[in-house]
Amino acid sequence: MIDRLRQQLAAADLPDRLRQLAAGAPAAAPVSLTLDLGKLDSDWLHQLPAKAPFWYRARPQRGEFRLGIGHALQVSSSGGNRFAALDNAFSGLCSDWRHTAGEPPPLAFAGFAFDAANQNPLPNALLAVPAILLENLGGRCRAVLTVPAGRIAQAADEWRQLLAQPARPSHTLLLPAAPQALTERAWTARVNAALRDIAGGKLDKLVLSRSRRVEAAGPFSPALILGQLAEQQPDSLLYAHGQGELCFLGATPERLVRLDNGLAEADALAGTAWSGSLSLAEQKNQHEQSLVVQAVVDALAPLCAAPPQASPATEHPAGHLTHLRSRICGRVASGTTLFDLVRALHPTPAVGGYPSGLAQDWLAAHGEQRNGWYSGGFGIFTAAGDGELSVALRCALLNGRQAELQAGAGIVAGSDPQQELAETEAKLGTLLTALGPAGELDRNGTRD
Ligand SMILES: C=C(O[C@H]1C=CC=C(C(=O)O)[C@@H]1O)C(=O)O
């Protein structure tokens, strides 16, 4: 497959095809050439680069796999106007974008942190057009090669170099973890503080998160972890963004919002059940999820031509966990962008709390710390203005041999601190298992 792409990169007419596409475009305009790679069954994980930035997004159950390698163009932002800033930059870029006629529009990847100020350690909000996009949609594979119009002369060499440095995945052993008792007590104390303020009528819901740091004998391999997640959670959306030693990755059950031809579809996901937990039918779980439905409907309504509609909640699997999920749909008013929807929705009470503004103030005042893009967003934006963002849950931030895992739980009236602690453990467990618990690895670090 990659050999077929290499041959096409060596074709003598490639620079001419790019120049024809770019005719009359400003030097900074993206130029994207789509090449057909035929029918094949690849998840692209073997092509994850060792050093170049990359983006991975896959839905294994639907046979949908995308890998972006290198950045042809990128823009980052932070602060209260971060979504508006990216929206402006992206719409400017789209107005000049030249791409192969008759092919689906090319796309950009984006990721952002929960908190508009956090820069730890990824850029707060980042949007990037990959230099090489490898797509496998239901077995049909293609490559989309992108270069700014002013850099066509050196493009083929740069693309070849990006393909020449795939990472070499190797298994590693997790080192014994530090005792958790103190951090667990500190977290439970915050849950009790949240319960007091909820009982006092200040808020209805707060989502409190915990983090767990783990270390391995050797560097973690994103490709192996993503492969594990695909097996564990085939119905979730896999995502990753890597930059050198750093990689933020996970498998999330929750969509933030999708925009397709004017139709917006968002998830209201909350309430968690696993073997031995409270049932999703319990009042506490139903209440927790109904607050998310209400907030999503309220956030979408001003952007929709008619009131958005919410489906009844159903059970939604996520590996060994199950959640309650409703889907909220609405036709957006003309001129509404995907970034407008993100700005209106984020953070939903699935990751922040309810009411949203008060919950965010409470979390900031109580030292809630969320690193990387945990509980922020991750997704794609097409040159036609459509796209889809997911809520970045069930994730790990890898840095060489270190990994930080984060997970949270929604606290409402009636929450039991010990049950909520167990819930965060169950959520952290999804990533811990994928990182490779020591018990499952032999002395050489290979799996049974
Ligand atoms: C905040 C997380 O999950 C959210 C999504 C589904 C169910 C949740 C819950 O039951 O609390 C959370 O709202 C997380 O996984 O870190």
Automatic annotation (TrEMBL):
- What catalytic activity does the UniProt entry give for this protein? chorismate = isochorismate
> In the Enzyme Commission scheme, what number(s) does this protein have?
5.4.4.2
The UniProt keywords, alphabetically, are: Isomerase
Task: Read off the SUPFAM superfamilies from this record.
Answer: ADC synthase
Protein name per the record: isochorismate synthase
User: Could you tell me which NCBIfam families the record lists for this protein?
Assistant: isochor_syn (TIGR00543)
Chorismate-utilising enzyme C-terminal domain spans which residues? 185-427
